[in-house]
Amino acid sequence: MDPFEVLLEQSAAVHGHLCAGQVVGVRMAMLGCRLIGLEDPTNREQIKKLIVFVEMDRCTADAVAYVTGVKLGRRSLKFMDYGIMAATFVNLETGKSFRVLSTEESRDLADSYAPEIEGKGARQVEAYKRMPECVLFRVQKVKVHLSEFDLPGPTRKKTECHRCGQVIRDNREAIIDGRPVCRPCTEQSYFSHAKEVTWSGMNRTPEPIGREKEDVPC
Amino acid sequence: MLKKIALEEAVGTELAHDITEISENGFKGPAFKKGHRVCDEDVCKLQKLGKNNLYLIDLADDEIHENEAAALLAESLAGAGVVFENTPSEGRINLHAAFDGLFTVNTAALAAFNMTDEVMCATRHTNTLVKKGDLVGGTRAIPLVMKRAPVERAGQVAAQSGGILSVRPLQQMNAGLIITGSEVYNGLIKDRFAPVLKEKIEALGSLVKEIIFVPDDADRIRDALTTHIAAGCDLILISGGMSVDPDDVTRKGIQMAGARDMHYSAAVLPGAMFMSACIGSVPVLGIPACALHHRATVLDLVLPRILAGQKVGKKELALMGHGGLCLNCTECGFPDCSFGLGC
Description:
Chain A is α+β, with helices and mostly antiparallel strands. Chain A has helices at 4-15, 20-35, 44-47, 59-68, 105-113, 120-130, 133-136, and strands at residues 50-54, 77-79, 86-91, 97-102, 137-141, 158-160, 167-169, 174-176, 179-181. In chain A, the strands form three sheets. A five-stranded mixed sheet of chain A has the order 2-1-3-4-5. Chain B is α+β, with helices and mostly antiparallel strands. The model of chain B has no long low-confidence stretch (mean pLDDT 92). Classes of the chains: A alpha+beta (218), B alpha+beta (343).
């Protein structure tokens, strides 16, 4: 793994800006990887052994993903929408799992750790660099229950929704009256009032470059 | 885990903690110590102390008693030059200076420690002079029984940089004084700076190796600095010429002598026109004229820290602003006052 400052600079570039959340995220990821014995997670040997659960969709999450190399599309990054500044690092080979939580008190302590830095944001960035891990984080050893349907690799199961025919992958269907139903057909969907639309020119394909944009439905 | 039992059923059991007595004659302290086996004769006294129930302790593997916790915390808090006796009283352990010196607190780490649930530590102000045996801090765990992990984490916080509390002995330095000012050099007025500076240096256990008088001439000031360094002075105090008059060339002379990390101004009153710099590893302190008129100035805050091996530059001089205001009391009580505390 690259040194902290190198990772921070790269992570901030990918994320779009350097902020306190980036510092916390980079340090959280470095600590988490160290705790589960995968200190070079983007290395080919280690990349398939790691799964990370992030519990927030904030700057910190991007930094954790950058440093660890986990990706949603590879199923190595799991987003748990808890609104908690925490991430859990799982070594699939050993089963070792640690949940690293950013402490609330670290926010109050920024003034003490970098009193000479002007501006709240800059002070937090510097303070979070200076704080030892025991001030910045709490760590829990946890057991993570992963089903075979959560693991990276090919799709393990496909089912058709009994109501709309939509194919559902990896056991994500709901069972209603003993039959598989996709989430949008249940009350648990994030959208509503779905209505299929069409427009002229919807037969386009991505090429060639320079082609004028077609109208799309409002 | 704690189990509450009625007092009359507690006879024959051991007390889980010290039981404090505050008597009419002003005594406050433990009437009974942890581990005391309760007997029939104790019941009446315990009732008078308002105890009708007592705790029995059955510690789980992941729990820790307040006394063991206090010892763990004290061990972590105590850095170099700080000692304690592992004899908790009412759950508290006191920390003391192991020798004379400058007591320092990592205040950020102390704040972090006290933000940890269920533990506390209170200390003297950082950067204060202490004598061997002086009380410098006290720590305790708040509940009688707590989870071990948070206490151990607090211990880690306390152990930052080798312990939050430390006492550093003052080095005996050989100071060179440079008294600038053509009016003094030419004998128009009598110097009053050298005796003041000498007294302050010697009071802290260091020596004045040599005093050089120079006029307001940057070249002569540079030469005096070079002479002191060649003579083996490891600290140089230079007085006069620190203000904004056209004749004030002291800073120029210091610069010409190859000084680095020069910083002019301190957030201290009196002492705003203080200057700190280094020539090689030798600290050079520019003393403004206020040192002549005030018993306590920025020099009294800086000098002990220099002798304790600290670097005092721009950041440190800026942070002195909080508490750096002398109240000009009719009778000066420094250092037993607020001047210099909190920085």
